[in-house]
């Protein structure tokens, strides 16, 4: 039996007094299939257990080496039905890509084909151990090698490091290679330039690597101010970290000019490749003068954000930086065998690698999913991925620019995402109010308040996997809440009304979170 929430640890479920729900209150707190789920501590008791366990001999020897606990662990005991129902009910309160459209800008939350999941679950890949003898895992090494070969061909770059486990991890990999190259030349330099239109992780990565970070302003059309960048270049600048397509959803059309200027000043060009899905099969970053670029497999090539472990952010390198790329890497011999090169001393002729990024070799599940996606699409299909992603984003932009402030609508076609602002909202309403109201329409909100170059930013990425019908429905919902915001509809300040939970105090949740449960008095 589902019990009412007695401890008061969470906001109330939508109340009927709000005028939007009719009907009496229920004893359980449930509303038909909208179930009021208590905490697991409120369901079971520490004094009970859902399984039968043998008596423990307290004097039996252990291998804990003095680390035995000295008091009861305090976990509740549940039966199997209680456990399954608890987590199933919680899962029904989550929004997911299998339920509907995820318009998160700059995150590429697209459908993950089930074929990818089937391949990743094959025992030879799913059960592989990183310390297995190389001769016993030739198939896995081949997958990693072939995936790396695809990435090199798609980017026009000669070398790739497969071990970075996320986008930011890949950024660090590229920056460390740049530092190693400068150090080998006798001057590590001090400054990395980061445009305002770059991803927020770019300056954080450069600072983490020990560089001073300096901003480069954007032009009124939302692209890098090339003149300002050229003026700042000098012997202390190690390189530039530039996102292309950028976070305003625009292609940096002057990228080649920027790269040439940076190279002439003795620096290197790092490209944030998180938005590669907008240009895959259409543009090779190597042709633009890129020296290093990470690729988010969980964005461009459909592997999920997580997938049973970390993400994956392989990094491709130019000829200039390839000698400094991290270990390990895979070499294919003439007899068809694959060798994982892990020892720096065995590769003296390769260059001055900066070392390793991680203990092992990368995320096998992500590699398998990404290669499956590539092979199932083929070169022509990957090109269509970019075309459809750009088409869908421009459809959203042009369908809403007449009612929503679209600051870069005249900067040419957008790429993978459309950017809007909160200009002319009435009654003191904000982007947050619109986002919360969109929840009532059945959608996860878009990315809000980023990028910072637009006031009240709303960043929408439809991805290539959404149909016109699903986009039309989203656009209709978005127009509806926008009309309410422009009219100053005060009810939006209390949204969402129909979600399992009412609006949170987000400031208190961030600054005074309750991270542990205690029984009510």
Q: What would your notes on this structure say?
A:
The chain is of the alpha/beta class and 521 residues long. 31% of the residues lie in helices and 9% in strands. It is built from 14 helices and 12 strands. The protein has helices at 40-43, 80-91, 114-120, 123-126, 138-155, 167-184, 201-208, 226-232, 255-264, 297-300, 364-400, 431-440, 468-486, 506-511; strands at residues 159-161, 191-195, 212-216, 237-243, 268-272, 292-294, 315-317, 329-332, 338-341, 418-420, 447-448, 458-460. Strands 1-7-6-5-4-2-3 form a 7-stranded mixed sheet, sandwiched between helices. A 3-stranded antiparallel sheet has the order 10-12-11. Strands 8-9 form a two-stranded antiparallel ribbon. The longest helix has 37 residues, at 364-400. The protein is globular.
Give a short synopsis of this structure:
This protein is of the alpha/beta class and about 525 residues long. The chain has 14 helices and twelve strands. The strands form three sheets. A seven-stranded mixed β-sheet has the order 1-7-6-5-4-2-3, sandwiched between helices. The protein has a three-stranded antiparallel β-sheet with strand order 10-12-11. A two-stranded antiparallel sheet has the order 8-9.
